[in-house]
Design brief:
Elements lengths: L10 H4 L16 H14 L21 H11 L11 H14 L2 H13 L3 H17 L5 E3 L2 E3 L4 H13 L6 H13 L6 H20 L5 H11 L4 H15 L4 H4 L8 H23 L1
Antiparallel strand pairs: 1-2
C-alpha cells in the first residue's frame, strides 16, 4: 500500500493563517474527519445500491446490501431488524443520523464493521479511501488488513499486510499475525502481552515449517545461512532480537510479571516479526 499523494496546501495554509498540518487526532474526531468518512461510505458503498432485480421500487429487502444492513442493525447497532426502514431512501438518512451520534471510537468501529461485512469489491475501496482521508486529516489511525490500528506508516502497513497475505501458504502464520493485530488494536481492551506472544508465535510457526521440526528460530536461521545466503551479521541481529523475547529474562518468560507493556512494545514486535517473515519467505524463494 503506497502513501496517497500529499494534499497541496491552499492559500490559507501557504500564508500560515491556518496550520498546514492539523493536530494529530488520537482520542477525538473532528467534524471534518467525520464528514470525510461519511463521504467515503456514500461514494464507495451507498451510491452502489442496486434494487431487487424483480422490483422497480428501492426496497432494502432483496437489494445488494440487504445482508450488510441486517448485520449492521443486528450486530452493530444491536437493534431490531424488523424496524429497518423498508425503502433505501429512508434507510440512508437513518444510518446517517446514527453515524453522526456515534462517539469518536465508535465511528472507527463502524467503519471497521463495514469493511469486514461488505463484499471485497466495496470493502477494499472503502479501506483505501479511508486511509487517504485519515492521512489528510492527521488521524492517528489507519486501516491495516481490515482493522483500524494505531499504525500510520505506509511502509509498516505494507509489511504487516504482506506478511498476513503470504502467511496463507504457511499454517499458523496468517492466524497468529491477524490475532496479534486484533489484540493490539482493540481500542477498549487492548491486550499487548498476548499480541506480542502471537507475533512471536508467527515467527516460530514459520521456523518450524522451514526446518521440519524445529520449535525455535535458531535452526531456521542456520538453514537460511547455509542454503539461502543469509548474511552472518543479519543472522546475529535476528538471533539477538529473538533471544530478547525468548530467554529466561525475555518477554516470553516474564510476560506474566510485566505490568507496563505498551502499545509501542506490541507495535514494534508486530512490525518486526512481519518484516522478518517477509524477508524469510523472499529468501527461501531465491
Amino acid at each position: 500500500m503506497s502513501d496517497p499523494k500529499a494534499p497541496e496546501l491552499d492559500f490559507s495554509q501557504r500564508m500560515g493563517i491556518i496550520p498546514a498540518t492539523p493536530r494529530m487526532q488520537l482520542d477525538e474526531i473532528t467534524s471534518e474527519l467525520r464528514n470525510s468518512l461519511w463521504n467515503v461510505l456514500t461514494i464507495e458503498l451507498f451510491d452502489h445500491y442496486q434494487r431487487p432485480y424483480d422490483s422497480s421500487f428501492q426496497y432494502v429487502k432483496g437489494c445488494n446490501f440487504h445482508e450488510y444492513v441486517n448485520k449492521l442493525y443486528a450486530d452493530f447497532f444491536k437493534t431490531r431488524v424488523d424496524n429497518i426502514p423498508p425503502y433505501w431512501y429512508e434507510l440512508v438518512p437513518e444510518i446517517s443520523q446514527r453515524f453522526y451520534e456515534l462517539r469518536w471510537d465508535r465511528v472507527y468501529a463502524f467503519m471497521e464493521f463495514t469493511v469486514g461485512n461488505t463484499d471485497p469489491i466495496y470493502s477494499e475501496d472503502i479501506a483505501r479511501e479511508c486511509n487517504r482521508v485519515l492521512q489528510r486529516e492527521n488521524s492517528g489511525y489507519r486501516f491495516v488488513a481490515g482493522k483500524v490500528t494505531p499504525i500510520t506508516s505506509s511502509e509498516e502497513i505494507h509489511e504487516i499486510e504482506d506478511a498476513i497475505k503470504r502467511g496463507n501458504g504457511y499454517a499458523g502464520v496468517n492466524t497468529h499475525l491477524q490475532t496479534a493485530l486484533v489484540l493490539m488494536s482493540d481500542r477498549e481492551n487492548p491486550d499487548y502481552r498476548n499480541s506480542i506472544k502471537e507475533s512471536i508465535s508467527a515467527v516460530e510457526s514459520l521456523a518450524k515449517q522451514l526446518t521440519g521440526n524445529a520449535t525455535t528460530l535458531a535452526p531456521a536461521l542456520n538453514e537460511l545461512e547455509k542454503h539461502h545466503n543469509l548474511h552472518p551479521a543479519l543472522k546475529k541481529a535476528f538471533s539477538s532480537l529473538y533471544g530478547w523475547t525468548s530467554d529466561a529474562d525475555g518477554i516470553r518468560h516474564c510476560l506474566m510479571d510485566v505490568q507496563n507493556l505498551t502499545q509501542a512494545d506490541a507495535r514494534f514486535m508486530l512490525i518486526t516479526c512481519s518484516a522478518f517473515i517477509n524477508f524469510v519467505i523472499d529468501s527461501t524463494k531465491n
